[in-house]
Amino acid sequence: MSSEHNVVTKSDKGAPLLSVQGLEKHFPITKGLLRRQVGAVRAVDGISFDVFKGETLGLVGESGCGKTTTGRLITRLIEPSGGEINFDGRNIAHLRQGQLRPLRKDMQMIFQDPFSSLNPRHTVGTIVGAPFRIQNVKTENGTKRAVQDLLKLVGLSPEHYNRYPHEFSGGQRQRIGIARTLALRPKLIVADEPVSALDVSIQAQVVNLLDDLQNEFDLTYVFIAHDLSVVRHISDRVAVMYLGKVVEIADRDTLYASPRHPYTVALMSAVPVPDPSRRDKAQRSRVLLQGDVPSPINPPSGCRFRTRCWKAQDICATQEPPLIARDGDPASHQTACHFPVVEGEDVAGRSPAGATA
Amino acid sequence: MSGPFLELKNLKISFPTDDGVVHSVDGLSFSLERGKTLGIVGESGSGKSVTSLGILGLHNKRNADVSGEIWLDGDELIRAEPERVRKLRGNKMAMIFQDPLSSMHPYYSVGHQIVEAYRVHHNVSKKVARKHAIDMLGKVGIPQPDRRVDDYPHQFSGGMRQRAMIAMALVNDPQLLIADEPTTALDVTVQAQILDLMHKLQEEFNSALIIITHDLGVVAELADDVLVMYGGKCIEYGTASTIFERPEHPYTWGLLGSMPRIDRPNLDRLVPIPGLPPSLINLPSGCAFHPRCAYEPRTAGLGKTVAPELVPAGGSKHLVRCHLPTEERQRIWLEEVKPKLEAQ
Questions:
Q1: I need a labelling partner for B109 at 20 to 30 A (CA). Which of A39, A172, A182, B137 fits?
Q2: Helices vs strands, H then E, count in chain A
């Protein structure tokens, strides 16, 4: 992301393009012949954030934190159990299929797995042309020409029109998926781990492509990923999720320079740094979290991170910390923690106090 | 004992297929001492996993052609009797696989599988072996090992399963441990736990460790020496500090430029390697990397026609397979590539 580009998005922040308020998705767990509900997986449990036009919001977290579910809720591939999704000034949380269809022109998704997200029995032309057909969009020089232009745009050759997905490598397939996403010039693109299935050298090509397309078409991205380095590279703002909640959200540079939530601190210190001379230093300053993420069926009371947090006290078990700006932070930097980490605090080698594992 | 603990000499592994012969590993040589860690880096299809399976003798001789020499502590493995290799496998050398869910048997409890691995090589009662398995699970940091030993793989989380895999690999106290993408399927915080564990266990057992990965961060964290593979060949070899601070092969530069780095100021753009990794059936002529290499024009046509040899380069133990002269490579790295990677 060029710094120039950041300035532009910050200065004309008007009403958000997408505004999520108290979004929830509880998947029911049923039992017995009558399929009585006995519990729920609280995959997304009350999250709120805004996405402004032209910016990229990064959504990071470990597996099971609800980031993919959030992406699917925003694009309304699934219906939320609660909360609002305001897209372009309209609450789309409970629209019906028929009402959603015209909306799909404006919001599209890039999927993680380039092997299962393309129909193996369709040619590239059919796949990339599908949005035109389904939405009944007429293009100036015919669909074929439009598709070939799109292929060129994402760095494929127009001659690939009649080929099948299996003839392409992972990176090329991901480009096909991106071409399909771009077909109707959407306003919002939700990218769910778009590069994590690709080789390192190909990953960089696709990241650069997404970057260029954003500048060219003024796209807005919600970029879901677990790789903190990639998220830092591509995002303007970053939200960190843990067990169905947003625990910290801030401008990219602020978040990476001074993370406040203990979970964010642990997450960042865990990223291996490709610099052998810093090996010892990195290992010493690493926060090693104990154990695994608790089950979202029965999340801990109060703060959900308290079972693995070295700073947890009694209040953490009883009171859920709100996501607000903490002492000395700008309003854009919000943290859901009773005892946020302050700069210069010694966190190295910490593990939770009363950990019985 | 003379000679290094593990030594590969000109290892070649190829698979004849209907479309042609796949040259997965093409003349690989390296050596490794006990207590040391070698990182093998490369993209998918560079031959890194095939190499590790080759060392363990896991290729079916009927559909793979394996040649060259693999010396493990005085034993040559390629021409050895299968029975002899089987005695060493799981005992003197062991492997940690990438995906712990698909490499453990879903039908047997974790304990059963570890006990089995132990009793194959040790003539002890089930009871003794079970005690040993519980000890091992405790050592890799599984809470309440005496209870978890009877759990099935699906009852473990991803990180715990990987720990159980490590316990299984270490149960016979192997002197050579090969880890093939041991943390790729794991989250970063769990990855940090596992890397920490592997580091500690290596120190405790003084084993030789080969870690195969595409993540340069993981390599920088664990490896003493690094081997970069491309198209089935080693294209650069050196100590970790050489590879990360004074790399001389354009492909290594490309890998470093492709990774966004959390410890450096953010780059405006990544510097990717253009094009695609080559097909191992139809490798490009000359240097396998030449179609993707920005410096190929400077070789006066050599890159397209002549395959470069692996020759000594600037750093200690440093070997590079490239036509450009060493001074030229060092100059390009310092003046053209490095500033681009570090600039904001």
A1: A39
A2: 12, 12
* pTM exceeds 0.90: no
Residue with tokens 């993680």: A112
Tens digit of pLDDT for each residue in A50-75? Answer: 999 999 999 999 888 999 999 999 99
Helices (H), A44-87: 67-74
Please answer yes or no on whether A200 and B43 come within 8 Å at the CB atom. Answer: yes
| Residues facing A84 on adjacent strands | A21
Q: Identify whether the C-beta of residue B235 lies closer than 8 Å to the C-beta of residue B322.
A: yes
Report DSSP state, residue B333: I
Domain locations along chain B: 6-223, 236-342
Say yes or no for a CB contact (<8 Å) between A279 and B220: yes
ipTM: 0.83
CATH code for residues B6-223: 3.40.50.300
Partner residue opposite A201 with nearest CB, options B160, B240, B254: B254
Across A207-224, average pLDDT? 94
> Which pLDDT belongs to residue A7?
41
Q: Cβ A270–B192 below 8 Å, yes or no? A: yes
Give the closest residue to A240 by CA, choosing from A258, A267, A222.
Answer: A267
Mutate: best of B36, B49, B221, partner A, most A CBs <10 A: B221
- Can you tell me the distance from the alpha carbon of A283 to that of A266, in angstroms, rounded to the nearest whole number? 12
